[in-house]
Amino acid sequence: MIIIRFNLLQLWVWLFLGMLISSNVKAAVIDVTHFGAIPDDGLDDQVALQFILTHLNNGDKVYFPQGVYHLSAELQLEGKTDIEIYGSTTGRRVTLMATGFNPFETSVYGGSLWIVSDCKKVNFHDLMIDVDKPVSINGSVSDIGSDISGAYYMLELGEEFIGYNPNLQDLKIMHQLSYEHDGTPNYHISTHYNLKEGKYPLIEKMDRLKLKIYNDLAAQLSIGEKINLRLKISGNPCFKFLGVTTLALSDITIWQWPDFAMYVSDRLNTHFKSKDMTLTRVKMKSKPGSARLMSISADGIHIASMEGTFKVRDCEFVGLGDDAINVHSRMCKIEEITEKTVSLINGWTNKLVEDDWSFPDDVIEFLDGTTGKSKGTAVISSRHLGRYVMKSVLKHVNPGDFVVKKTRTPSTVINNCTVSRSRARGFVLQSNDVIVSNNKFSGISGSAVLLSCDMERWFEATVIKSALVKGNTIENCGKFLKWNDTLIGYGAIAVKTAHEIGGIDKPAGVHRNITISKNNIKDCANSAIFVSSTDQIKIIDNRIENCSNRIGIFPYGKYAIYLKNCENDLVQGNKFKKVKEEFGRADKGLHSHLRIR
Fold it and tell me: Which of 223, 307, 387, 578 would be 275's cystine partner, CB 3.0–4.6 Å?
């Protein structure tokens, strides 16, 4: 809690500044240093900055001169239009430094840095974001053994973590993850701890930066492997956007954050809804000179509900704790149905869906609860407490069928981005319309590109209606990501109906109109391209080298290209080198025509 005390003179100054900002009829450029936010003084700037944001007029611009600004709590921008927030492009640039992280306490930091809600036309650019203390630490394995307390490994930490000395043994560690020498997460150990029950690993401090960590799986490690220790610091997304129409971020760099870097969704009772987002030259990576393995502890960008188009170009994602980008909306199940009304259950929570799931005039789509295939669409008239009234009569829809949002799942265009050394997948895209072109992926535990609609665990939607995956370079992906000790990277490029194990048995027609063309795929463990449950799939002119040789998913993984339950497909012009077998398929009661040239 921040306690602010004003003397009478200070109070009059703040009131005057508030009137000065609010009285501007024309759009103003507001220099934050003129209102009490002073860079590089080591003092908290949150109160001064929040004061500015609260009193903005529509059309105002907020300017940060060069330097470091300290923030002990979140900044909120609400109910504004046409706002630009930006930093100096000269000198040392601008860093917004989040403070207050303490991994020695059992309490969890829960704040975002920015919360933007019910706004239209918001533009952030030329800002860097960091944390005052590392939210994860890492080092190299120097010894492995066992004693009376169990199996252990010795971890030599880097010098940049000396700030946590002399109490290293008291750090609250929530996750241990092993990495290859090149920084690729390899899942030799991936151990989570039950924070709610207060369970943490046994740690002994052996030297100033040397820890002895007990782990039953220590014998699976080798000397020189790297280990990342994610500390018990978690929170909300760095940027949380709720009901923001026309959003742009460019030249933003996030050095480290303990949750999603960016999260987009809708919120009840807002004038504006989330629609259209563009990211240009956004970077999520460790600071130059740092040896930190993990930059963002969760997804880089997580789109949970948004209309319109999501565009990402020339961005960089390095060392993420989960997917670089995940685009989806929530899938629901029909609990009850009348002529025009459905009661919906949130597939993830198994409770009545929230009223901000969708809104009047939104288009929703019904999917068969068994096959996953479309049964048609309807337009929402009204909703209350999980009951959605449609404008038209529902036909052939039954309890147990799925419901997904067409309106609030954006078309997605991603090009010229780089994703490397990340724990889960590159892009998880669950949208009707997708273009992924000319990106580079390397050192990712799971698939580089997963086109999906999760109908089994996460219940994320929606199905693919049209997708182009073209001209991407993919190396060293899909080798390590596991679920219950089983590899789940079916393909460097994969099309499924679930994220983890399974999601490959639905019939053709769940997904449609997918083209995978002119990609260069190299050094991936299982299939280079794995496609299931798709009608009209084209796999053309891809170059595949050294894939399907280290089979982790049998029998599919031994084929460089594998189709399961697909029809109306074309596979031609693909070049293979050093693969176990070039092509395989399995169809479930389908009479598909395969053309291979």
Answer: 307
359-384 average pLDDT score: 94
Phi, psi of 164 (to 5 degrees): -90, -5
DSSP of 497-548, one letter per residue?
Answer: SSSSS----SPTTSEEEEEEES-EEEEESSEEEEEEEEEEEEEES-EEEEES
The residue assigned the tokens 């990342």 is 228
Between CA 518 and CA 444 the distance in angstroms is 20
Classify residue 40 as left (phi > 0), alpha (psi -120 to 50) or beta: left
Give the model's confidence band at 281: pLDDT under 50 very low, under 70 low, under 90 confident, else very high: very high
Do the bridges between strand 466-470 and strand 520-524 make them parallel or antiparallel, or are there none, so unpaired?
Answer: unpaired
Place of tokens 């009234």: 389
Are 376 and 366 within 8 A, CB to CB? yes
Closest by CA position to 228, among listed 261, 185, 260:
185
List Cβ neighbours of 576 (8 Å cut-off, separation of 6 or more). Answer: 544, 545, 560, 582
Concatenate the DSSP letters of all residues of 231-291 into one string.
ES---S-SEEEEEEEEEEEEEEEE--BSS-SEEEE--TT-SS--EEEEEES-EE-PPTT--
Give which of 546, 502, 524 is closest to 442, Cα–Cα. 524
CB 155, CB 210: distance < 8 Å: yes
Q: d(Cα 413, Cα 469) in Å, to the nearest integer?
A: 10
DSSP conformational letter for 556: G
For 408-454, what is each residue's pLDDT tens digit?
Answer: 999 999 999 999 999 889 999 999 999 999 999 999 988 999 999 99
Per the CB < 8 A criterion, the answer to whether 135 and 258 are in contact is yes
How far is it, in rounded angstroms, from Cα 413 to Cα 435?
Answer: 5
Residue-wise pLDDT tens digits, 471-507:
999 999 988 776 666 666 789 999 999 988 889 999 9
Highest mean pLDDT among 2-6, 132-136, 416-420: 416-420
Average pLDDT along the chain: 90
What domains does the chain contain, in order, with CATH numbers? 8-133+236-317 (2.160.20.10), 136-231 (2.40.30), 330-405 (2.40.10.170), 441-596 (no CATH)
CA distance 32 to 121: 21
**Residue 298 tokens, joined:** 């969760």
- Say which range, 14-28, 184-198, 301-315, 406-420, has the weakest mean pLDDT: 14-28
Q: Residue 249: beta bridge partners?
A: 124, 279
Tokens of residue 521, six digits = 């795929």
Helices (H) and strands (E) counted in the chain, each on its own, are 2, 49
Please report, for residues 344, 373, 393, the alpha-carbon distance to residue 379 in angstroms, rounded to integers and kept in the order given.
15, 19, 10
Dihedral of the alpha carbons of 430, 399, 357, 503, in degrees to the nearest 10: -20
Amino acid at 262: M
pTM of this prediction exceeds 0.85:
yes
Single out the residue of 492, 542, 490 nearest to residue 516, CA to CA.
Answer: 542
Amino acid at 84: E
Count CB-CB contacts under 10 A for residue 81.
Answer: 18
d(CA 91, CA 427): 34
Using CA atoms, how far apart are residues 252 and 316, in angstroms rounded to an integer? 11
Q: Is a pLDDT exceeding 90 seen at residue 24?
A: no
